Amino acid sequence: MKLYYSPGACSMATHIVAREAGHNVDLVKVDIPNKKTEDGGDFWKINPKGYVPALQLDNGEVLTEVGVICQYLADQKPESELVPKLGTMERYHQMEALNFASSEVHKQIGALFNPAMTPEMKEVQKSTIGRRLNTLEKMLDGKSYVSGDKFSAADAYLFTVLNWTKMHAIDLSPWPNIKAFMGRVGERPKVQETLKAEGLLK
Q1: Are residues 46 and 4 in contact, defined by beta-carbon separation less than 8 angstroms?
Q2: Based on the domain organization, do 130 and 175 belong to the same domain?
């Protein structure tokens, strides 16, 4: 399998899940603005959507979207227990957490990367982000991870997009559960490996 990624982008969630699950994937770095792979290939041909992540399977088929790739990688290694079994309520709660990470945390924080945003617009956006973080703070109350005491694919996604708060000078101190969660996930050996592999940690 080939995982098309950009360092620190949302694709890092799928990279973490791949390592946590024990997959051997070939990493292919993508220059997102120019839609080129590191060997000069046309990324549009891999993913017509033009963004990472994209997971190319050994048969040539390509999967896109963070939540879907995370679920796929975890399902191929059920012993990793990164997603619960199909048909269980735990599975649906995991999907709920993945969707929350995607639509409410990823999209809200990710919007701050838009160069057209004025300082005033950014302040409004940060207010919206604050409300989402208030929700996540409650979700993490009394838990080590979003689904309880066990690390899951949703935690990899949340960690990845919450990591962007550093770039946008969003102080997580008002949300102690989130701050503790970030420290806890960040210390995981496979997460450390991922950060090093993407050049984000020495």
Answers
A1: yes
A2: yes
Per-residue confidence (pLDDT) for residue 96, from 0 to 100: 97
Tokens of 140: 């993490």
pTM of the predicted structure, to 2 decimals: 0.97
Determine the pLDDT at residue 87. 95
Which residues of the chain are modeled with pLDDT < 50? none
* pLDDT of res. 170: 97
Identify residue 54 by its one-letter amino acid code. Answer: A
Provide DSSP, 18-32: HHHHT---EEEEEET
Helix (H, G, I), strand (E, B) or coil at 94: helix
Identify whether residues 124 and 69 lie together within a single domain: no
Give me the domain span that covers residue 28. 2-80
Domain count, the chain: 2
The Cα 114–Cα 94 span in angstroms is 29
In a domain, 74, yes or no: yes
